[in-house]
Amino acid sequence: MRIPFIDLAALHTELSGELDQVWTSIRASSNFIGGAHVDNFEAEWAAYCGVDYCVGVDSGTSALELALRGLGIGPGDEVIVPAFTFIGTAEAVAAVGAQVVFADVNATTLLMGAEEIRQALSARTAAVIVVHLYGQPADMDAISSLAQAAAIAVVEDAAQAHGAKWRGRPVGSGSNACCFSFYPTKNLGAFGDAGAVVTNDSALAERVRLLSNHGRPRQSSDLHELIGGTHRLDALQAAVLSVKLKHLDSWNAARARAAHQYRELLSSLPLHLVGTAEGACSSHHCLVIESAHRDIIMQNLAMQGIASKIYYPVPCHRQNAFIAQNTPCLPVSESAAKRVLSLPLFPHITKKEIETIVGVVHAALTCPSRQLNVG
């Protein structure tokens, strides 16, 4: 049995009729940039996230950069980010000229919480980027309280958390801005790169919109109020996202059922399942285990035609792009990078496939010779 890490073909086959109509409509109109499809998706996604405004952009990384620029973050400022995340989180801070300050993560959830942020605060801290890693929302109550007391902005990186909630509230509804990626493999994915910034701040939304389109207000193509760039969401991606959004909740529910089955079958094995905090409703973007025998588990899965991935093998503060003489020691992030492994998880995964995957994991952990193969 060959099992992919994610099965996009099954998902798109389910929606083939609706997606064909989208392509036909856009091809006929030749309206590829902006227009009704973008406006409609922005309104739909804002409503889904429980906020007033959404600005569609070309990627999740652009969303983070534009949100920071919109908040006035730049040279002389420090922005706290978790070391254990995709590098785009830190890249956005560097792109606006601010100083990246890496913080460690919690050993149970692998999320940066209020305590980790508190340890990284300084007089120059202007903002914190909270990452809802693997679809698990961070404790936004504690983080918001800390940020308010410290007078710093909160930006959420929800690139893996479409539909996740903290104590019943959608991610993105309790911060200055929340940034999403719609990369094709996300819970809500486009047909290419795409992203969005959502917020309840009308001035911030308008500034992000200007920055995303060469500083041009919507009523004019010849006036430029700010120095911006080309970071627009195109009509095809917006239309595809509108089609898929109608199915997001059912897909997330299927992911949740699969994650529950994994947890039941893996519970007796000598490994750690990355935990979810009380009050968190995950989008189950990834099913992540931690094991000292991560490499042999991955090898055994591959030999059986089962895909798996490591998110992330090198924490950001140890990447060549960011490493420096004063690179901090962040033990939880560094340990997790050596132990984490994501198993296949997608809406159309079957019970039999999960049983097969867990069977291979079990065999890898109980094989007397496994120690010989660990790198």
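the 2nd protein, sequnce then structure:
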Amino acid sequence: MPRTFAYLRVSTAGQATDNQLREIEAAGFRVEPRRVVTETISGSIATSQRPGFARLVDRLEAGDVLVVTKLDRLGRNAMDVGATVARLADLGVRVHCLALGGVDLTSSTGKLTMSVINAVAEFERDLLIERTQAGLSRARAEGKAIGRPASITGEDRQTAEKLLADGLSVSAIARHFKTSRATIKRIRNTLLVEP
């Protein structure tokens, strides 16, 4: 008979996992208390770097069932979730996600669901990149400055240019203006390019 485990994760110590466990029980999964693994760790941490999840994986055997309430319990993004589910499937562990109707993510239906989720996530990333690039292009066309403001401007920049032309070292000029060598090198490179 397969053993059923539950992985419950919260991000901060002020949060509790009680609701997740109740949700799993309400869905009809019976999990013995010793097979409930709880962890307080940020969702931005990859599953492979979560100590509680690593201990859980060490306990899992072929035929076991792992239940989570949401996909984000299993990873920080679609790729991390996909890798985690694939790793568990290789161990022979079935993974059920209640937010997806309790579907076993290692089954054919679950794999299809994961593929769709990954495709949507990739589509959203691509749209975000397109919107960002379009916004930057529009801002440039409107003459808006993009990026951090220059740390040396106006009269100080002219002084730095003169000091460079007089042969003073980049390091000495950077110390004088209390800025980085990279800033002075950018000014020098601009002088070399200008006609």
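The longest helix spans residues 108-141. The chain is about 50% helix and 10% strand.
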